[in-house]
Amino acid sequence: MLLAVDVGNTNIVFGTYDGQDLITSWRMATHREQTEDEYGIMLKSLLRDADIEFGKINGAIISSVVPPLTPVMERMCERYFSTKALVVGPGIKTGINIKYENPREVGADRIVNAVAAHHKYGGPAIIVDFGTATTFDAVTAGLDYLGGAIAPGIGISTDALFKSAARLYRVEIAKPDRIIGRNTSASMQAGIFYGYVGLVDSIVDRMKQEMGGGRIITVATGGLAPLICSETRTIDEVDMLLTLDGLRLLYEKNCET
Questions:
Q1: What per-residue confidence (pLDDT) applies to 60?
Q2: What is the CATH number for 26?
Q3: pLDDT of residue 174
Q4: pLDDT at res. 159
Q5: What per-residue string of b and e applies to 95-125 under the rule 16 or more CB within 10 Å gives b?
Q6: What is the distance, to the nearest Å, from the Cα of residue 239 to the centroid of all Cα atoms in its chain?
Q7: At a CB cut-off of 8 Å and minimum separation 6, what does 25 contact?
Q8: To which H or E segment does residue 120 belong?
Q9: Which of 58, 87, 116 marks a domain boundary?
Q10: Using alpha carbons only, what angle is made at residue 171 by residues 168 and 172, rounded to the nearest 5 degrees?
C-alpha cells in the first residue's frame, strides 16, 4: 500500500492507496513545531481506527510547500513505516515540461495537480486550488506547464478584514441568500462569497484568452472548492482528490520497474 502525504501551509492530507484505489484519507492542521514522532503516532492511530495494518504500507510519497516539515515527514516514513519516501521536487520524473522562468519556484502541489488534472481530464487545462493561497495553473494538451496566477486565499483574506476593521467581526464563509445584505453579517458574507466567485471567473476567463481559447477544461480542488464553485460559471469539475491522485500517479511513474 502507498502512503501519500500532501503538506500544505494550513492542512496536511494523508491518503492510503491500494493500487489505484484510495482506501481512506485524513486532513489535519499543519503544525510546524511537531516532530516525526508526534505525526507518526497520530497517523498510526488513524490507521488502526481504519483497520489498516501498518506493515502493509510499503511505499510513500510526499508533496510539501512547508520546507521545515519535509524532513520531518521523511523521517516519520522511515521510522514508523520502514520506507524511504519519494519527495516531489527537482529530479523527480513528472512528464511535464515546466515553462516557468525558474522551475524551482513552482510549488510541488501545483505540479502534482497539473499531472493529475491532465491524466484524469485531458488538456489543455486550468487548475484552481483553494488553499492558503488560491492558485491558478495552466497546462497544455502537450503537457507544458505554462505558469499561472496566485491570489490570497479566502481564509487569510477574511482574517485580514476582521483584524483590520474594528467594527467588523468573523462570520461563517457561506453562500448568502442575496447579494444585497441587510445586516453586517450578510453583507460580509455576500462580499466574501461573490467576491471570490467573481475572482475565479475573471482570472479563468483571462487565462483562457491567453491560452488561445477553444475547449479548455477547468478543474477545481481544495477545501472551499465545492462552496465557491457552486456559483461559478467557468469551473467544469470539482475534484477533492486531485492532489492525492496526482501523488499516486507520480509515485507509479517514478517507481516503475
A1: 95
A2: 3.30.420.40
A3: 83
A4: 79
A5: ebebeeeeeeebbbbbbbbbbbbbebbebbb
A6: 10
A7: 13, 14, 15, 16, 241, 244
A8: helix 108-121
A9: 87
A10: 165
Burial of 157 (0-12, 13-18, 19+ CB in 10 A): middle
Same domain, 113 and 232: yes
CA 84 to chain CA mean position, Å: 23
Domain range for residue 107?
A: 97-245
How many CA atoms, within 13 angstroms, populate the side-chain half-sphere of residue 151? 20
User: 99-121: per-residue pLDDT in tens?
Assistant: 888 888 888 899 999 999 999 99
Name the 3-class secondary structure at 147: strand
Q: Which residues are catalytic?
A: 109
Q: Tell me, rounded to whole angstroms, the distance of Cα 143 from its chain centroid.
A: 19
Using CA atoms, how far apart are residues 25 and 172, in angstroms rounded to an integer? 25
Q: Which residues of the chain have pLDDT under 70?
A: 164, 166-170, 256-257
DSSP annotation string for 80-97:
HH--PPEE-STT---S-E
Q: Are 217 and 126 in contact (CB under 8 A)?
A: yes
* The residue type at 165: A
Q: What is the pLDDT of residue 166?
A: 58
d(CA 255, CA 236): 32
* Nearest Cα to Cα of residue 61 among 29, 100, 93: 93
- The values of phi and psi at residue 165, to 5°, are -110, 115
